[in-house]
User: Fold this.
Amino acid sequence: MPRLSEVIAALDTLWPPEKAEGWDAVGTVCGDPDQEVSRVLFAVDPVQDIVDEAVKLDADLLVTHHPLYLRGTTTVAASTFKGRVVHTLIKHDIALHVAHTNADTADPGVSDALAGALDLRVVRPLVPDPSDPDGRRGLGRVCELDHPLTVREFAARAAERLPATAQGIRVAGDPEALVRTVAVSGGSGDSLFDDVRAAGVDAFLTADLRHHPASEFMADRAHSAHTAHSADGAPTPLALLDAAHWATEWPWCELAAAQLDEISDRKGWGLRVHVSKTVTDPWTAHAASGHPSPSSDPLGAPN
Ligand SMILES: [Zn+2]
Assistant:
C-alpha cells in the first residue's frame, strides 16, 4: 500500500504544482505524508457534502479541483464551514489535495476532459503555455467537430453530455449558425474572449459568462472579420455557450481518476479510485421565462 507522499508525488507528475498560477493555492491541504492510502475520491469542490461522502466511502485521500483556502486564514475552528471541513478530514484520517490551475493547463487537462465529454477533437491549446516545446499545454482548447452542427444542436449535445445541472446551457448568437470549430475552457472563461476572437472559431463553450463581457463580445463579433455561416449560407457572428461551472470541470474528475488508476496499476498499488457524482454547483433550480418571441430568443419553444 503506498504512502500519501508517494501518491502525491505521482499526482505532481500529472499536474506539476509549479505550473499553477501565482495567485492559486494548490497542493496538500491536510494529511500525514506517512499515512497509507488505499482509497481515493475525486471531486470538483471541497465542500462538506463531498467530505461526508469521503468519510462514508472510507477514503484516505480526497483530491479536488478547487482549493479549500485560496487566501490565508487565521482559523480552522469548526464554527466556520471550511474549518468544519478540515476537522472532519483530520478526524477521519483523510488527506485533501488540490490540483487547480496546474490541472487546467496540463496535458491532458481540464479542458481536454471537457472536449472529450463533448466528443470534440482537440487541435491545440487556446492559450498555449510558451514554456511547452510541444505546444500541448495551456489554457482552454481549440477543437473540431467531426460533422458540423448548428449552434442549437451543439447546445443540445452539451446539455446531454455534461452532467445535469439546474442551469443547463445558455446560448448567445444565432441558433441556426453552423459550428465546425469550437473553443472550450472549463470553469470561468470570460477572460479568454481576446484569445477566442483570435482563434477564429465558430463557438465558445465555457462557464460563468457575465452580461457586459458577453454582450460586448457579441456586439464586437458582428463587426469582425471572422464569421460563422448559418444553414442558408448567411454569415453570423460566433456563438457563446454558457454551462454550469461545476459541469464544465466535472469531466476532469473522471479523466484524473483514470490517470491515477493507470499509475496504480503500473506500480502495483491496488488503489481503489472513485469519482463523486454529487452535484456541488451552487444553483439548484431554474425557472424558465415565459415563451420568448422568436426574434428575442429563437431557442425558445415555438409559439
Ligand atoms: Zn473552477
Notes: The first strand starts at residue 27 and ends at 30. Residues 4-100+248-275 form a domain with the Udp-n-acetylmuramoylalanyl-d-glutamate--2,6- Diaminopimelate Ligase; Chain: A, domain 1 fold (CATH 3.40.1390.30). The chain is about 30% helix and 25% strand. The pocket of zinc ion is lined by residues 66, 187, 245, 249 (CB under 6 Å).
